[in-house]
From TrEMBL:
<feature type="transmembrane region" description="Helical">
    <location>
        <begin position="1203"/>
        <end position="1227"/>
    </location>
</feature>
<feature type="disulfide bond">
    <location>
        <begin position="883"/>
        <end position="910"/>
    </location>
</feature>
<protein>
    <submittedName>
        <fullName>Contactin associated protein family member 4</fullName>
    </submittedName>
</protein>
<dbReference type="InterPro" id="IPR002181">
    <property type="entry name" value="Fibrinogen_a/b/g_C_dom"/>
</dbReference>
<feature type="signal peptide">
    <location>
        <begin position="1"/>
        <end position="25"/>
    </location>
</feature>
<keyword id="KW-0812">Transmembrane</keyword>
<dbReference type="Pfam" id="PF02210">
    <property type="entry name" value="Laminin_G_2"/>
</dbReference>
<dbReference type="InterPro" id="IPR036056">
    <property type="entry name" value="Fibrinogen-like_C"/>
</dbReference>
<keyword id="KW-1015">Disulfide bond</keyword>
<keyword id="KW-0325">Glycoprotein</keyword>
<feature type="domain" description="Laminin G">
    <location>
        <begin position="322"/>
        <end position="499"/>
    </location>
</feature>
<keyword id="KW-0245">EGF-like domain</keyword>
<feature type="domain" description="Laminin G">
    <location>
        <begin position="961"/>
        <end position="1164"/>
    </location>
</feature>
<feature type="domain" description="EGF-like">
    <location>
        <begin position="501"/>
        <end position="538"/>
    </location>
</feature>
<dbReference type="GO" id="GO:0007155">
    <property type="term" value="P:cell adhesion"/>
</dbReference>
<feature type="domain" description="Fibrinogen C-terminal">
    <location>
        <begin position="537"/>
        <end position="588"/>
    </location>
</feature>
<feature type="transmembrane region" description="Helical">
    <location>
        <begin position="1065"/>
        <end position="1082"/>
    </location>
</feature>
Amino acid sequence: MGSVTGAVLKMLLLLSTQNWNRVEAGNSYDCDDPLVSALPQTSFSSSSELSSSHGPGFARLNRRDGAGGWSPLVSNKYQWLQIDLGERMEVTAVATQGGYGSSNWVTSYLLMFSDSGWNWKQYRQEDSIWGFSGNANADSVVYYRLQPSIKARFLRFIPLEWNPKGRIGMRIEVFGCAYRSEVVDLDGKSSLLYRFDQKSLSPMKDIISLKFKTMQSDGVLLHREGPNGDHITLQLRKGRLFLLINSGEAKLPSTSTLVNLTLGSLLDDQHWHSVLIQRLGKLINFTVDEHRHRFHAQGEFSFLNLDDEGNVSFSCSQPQSMPVTFLSSRSYLALPDFSGEEEVSATFQFRTWNKAGLLLFSELQLVSGGILLFLSDGKLKLNLYQPGKLPSDITAGVGLNDGQWHSVSLSAKKNHLSVAVDGHMASATPLLGPEQIYSGGTYYFGGCPDESFGSKCRSPLGGFQGCMRLISISGKVVDLISVQQGSLGNFSDLQIDSCGISDRCLPNYCEHGGECSQSWSTFHCNCTNTGYRGATCHNSIYEQSCEAYKHRGNASGFYYIDSDGSGPLEPFLLYCNMTETAWTIIQHNGSDLTRVRNTNPENPYAGFFEYVASMEQLQATINRAEHCEQELTYYCKKSRLVNKQDGTPLSWWIGRTNETQTYWGGSSPDLQKCTCGLEGNCIDSQYYCNCDADWNEWTNDTGLLSYKEHLPVTKIVITDTGRPHSEAAYKLGPLLCRGDRSFWNSASFDTEASYLHFPTFHGELSADVSFFFKTTASSGVFLENLGITDFIRIELRSPTVVTFSFDVGNGPFEISVQSPTHFNDNQWHHVRVERNMKEASIQVDQLTPETQPAPADGHVLLQLNSQLFVGGTATRQRGFLGCIRSLQLNGMTLDLEERAQVTPEVQPGCRGHCSSYGKLCRNGGKCRERPMGFFCDCTFSAYTGPFCSNEISAYFGSGSSVIYNFQENYLLSKNSSSHAASFHGDMKLSREMIKFSFRTTRTPSLLLFVSSFYKEYLSIIIAKNGSLQIRYKLNRYQEPDVVNFDFKNMADGQLHHIMINREEGVVFIEVIYVIFLAIAFNKFRILHFCVIPCFRFSLLTFWCFFGFAEHGDVDQETALAGGQGFTGCLSAVQLSHVAPLKAALYPSHPDPVTVTGHVTESSCVAQAGTDATSRERTHSFADHSGTIDDRQPLANAIKSDSAVIGGLIAVVIFILLCITAIAVRIYQQKRLYKRSEAKRSENVDSAEAVLKSELNIQNAVNENQKEYFF
């Protein structure tokens, strides 16, 4: 046994005889007997008494003996009242009164307990030290039920606060029942062995329950073995409990058969700790005190235990170790040294979480100075301090702030200084000078007294917070009871005979993988690389959808999405395609075309699809979306989808519900058809799918799967390719989802008495609430949820203040954000509040967040029980008037619209999004309302894109031009109410705004020419010398007015921006040119004002870009530039509300635009130092995000993919593929023409041509088909 378990823990084991079912029922048995009233006088003791009639024996509840209760000699926080219950009892409740008929009562107190009358432990609830609220007068009884109950023999009441007009006074009662158990005392070398009766064991259920207490930090508590090598071990390591389970299925341990769990902390405190291991089948619950871990084990168990061995005692020994707690940085313990020896010598043990603090200071006689022993960065440092001399340091140990007990031995004798930590001696250091060491008479442990006491004690890093025990000075153990009674030394802010250390990282309140670290009074969370932020790593740094990113103004690209916000799901990377609607694109590993042969129902083919996100993440994303779809293409040649004899499916797919689906693209689940079956154009009208015709030629069934509950596709199964010439191929597109139902989910509240109600909000330890609101009201409650005393409330307190108020049992708190502007401006404002173990916070819009730290040792659980009220309160007063949108609690969205549809005075939805989001529409784009959101109308803008922010640019080759005919457009639009109609109203312009950008190296060049019916014109040219000229001729009988910009050569290949505003005879011209310097660039702006004599154009006839050829009735410079034309790039061309270049590149019939020569969409952005024309690149109009290609026919997809491949190789491949496709098509047409079956020829021809093309280029375009992978 010893070889298996190693060192057996020196401890006490307690085997409870309570009925298990009774415990599981939650202490429903009767355990409320009064335990104090029948106790003898000797069972009561106290720190002191005011007089014999105020002694502790008079502290029974409702008794008037003596002075009517206990009162100490001095009222301070070091007084206590103690009760000896005679034996260990289970205590379930306590009650207190003040002194009878007096002004003496306690308003708050601590409760401590012990088995031996030594080494006390504070009662804790909710993993925090809980101070009980006491009495408000002398005679009323305040009763508290203890949950959990206490099992102890001794109880101690420690007053914290009392009536300021009186003194401490108490009468008490304790309620509970007898608690009996069997104990065994193990000395570290002994063990208790027990052999089970196999007939009494259940193969499915095991329950192991025990309690233990020990001062040792390491040892084995329990080891149990089965006949097949399976075993379970319960072991203490550094005060933490480890559970190791091996199912024995594998000869060598593996991750699937070996389980290693850790629970508990600081379990070597000589107090009872309960352990419960429950096994039901493979489900195992592991519980230590109040902390539980649940998991599923692998393998089967058949435990068999191996008689009493070694020095085992069935009684309970009580080690007399008395710790002391240094509660604050002001704590200290001053002890005298009566030895008179020529040395400084001290030993002690300590434990702490703090990295720094003074452990010991001792003055030196004969020489000034002293010896300092302190912690610095978790290391022990010994310093000899002597004024005027360099300090002598010794450093020992590392990581001593780990909460474990560490022993220290200090010796300064003659002229040597040494220190040992945990038995490891640091190198001794000679002292400076020949002086002998004499103790200064006083040792200061943990800190220094106030300077007013005249002490020379120094504490450079502050006081020590933690516990000490086994303190010895010059080889003599210090009697801490004498210290407590005031007969030895003095102290401040200590708790004697108790170690009050607690592990604030157990349980770990740092969420989402945050790393917990702690000090004596608090804990800290390191959220680095978690994707979350905040005091407990609760708040995700990412948005929950592409829709949310879009409305922050983000462009298309890769983004991390956290679908459930602060919930348990991790963020993941995907592609957001920001069109008029935000599309979410999630790729998988099966985007390539896959061919399948030689399958049958007995030997099926199964293709699996693995996505870049987990199924839980995908489900959350799909649930939020308005619509999802996935294109599934199935090619077939003598490969059926359904057996036509009995209707049995021969091919099918499986989605996230793990159910077989036999419907295909375009169909709903109940119809089980393909797209051609719905449209009535299958190649054989007898069937609902093309493939079911079973032809010996290629055809396909392709369509979009859009039933959200079944998406995404995770598997495809094919079983009918085993016949001669039978073959199939398939391709699955990415999962595409658009919109975000939660982001726009809203409700409008019409009256102050209206509200929506939802189930109780459960955010006991961590809660966050976020929403948008807009209103014109000056105040109102957004949200409220009540408990018995706890509550949360978020409200608009005034037009400029939003307040978050709450109570978790420590009294009400509130924090507010005040804005310099009003919130009731009918604009959307975003509110986010959070309450956790560390703090509460509130943020509104981008204003500075406000926070409120949580009390260090207060209540932490938010316990609510009423309905959640949204938009109002339970009293139907102070309700909110306005709109609330996207309300989320701990990452879960509440469906406001669904609840509003059945609630009076509350309307689903909310209008007016453009008032807040209209600023996202740029460059003349107009915001248009939608029922769920808005969109930017770019009709009259020279830009495109979701926010009208994408420039439309084109490269003009030699001899090319774009002509926009205003006269023709006038006839089309004069009856319209649009902006264009107003622009063309009388066709006589007294004002215009012209904007465009250009880049060229050609001189002279005509950039722009506008003329009227009466030969009035405006020309913008680059002259032969490179200067920019703007030439207005508004009177045909006069020479044009010329504005000349000759400060630099404008044909320098750089990008230049021009804006011209004319109103009547005043022209404002702005030219911005860019100079590139390495990777930086500078912008220069030139402004020019001028006055021209004529005020308006007459009837406009046409607008000509670049390459104007008719030279009559124009000045010589304009004619020369027009003859040369323009070669270069032009971008974002706009004349008032007309965008001619956009009309040319994105025609919407009937647009009066004429394009001559080579004009190709391109980008005007280029690197400096290269030729302007060589920098132009022709780009495909297809959206490179993949959404367009993924929904186009495969033939177009091939062309698009080939076009993306840059360089000569791609061009050659594309030409070869086109030739191949044409040849195949000609061959197909000849065969099909002979058959004279038009519908059949169309389907077979296109499918086989596409399939062969796709299969031939599979390897060549493999990388392009994975453009969303990373």
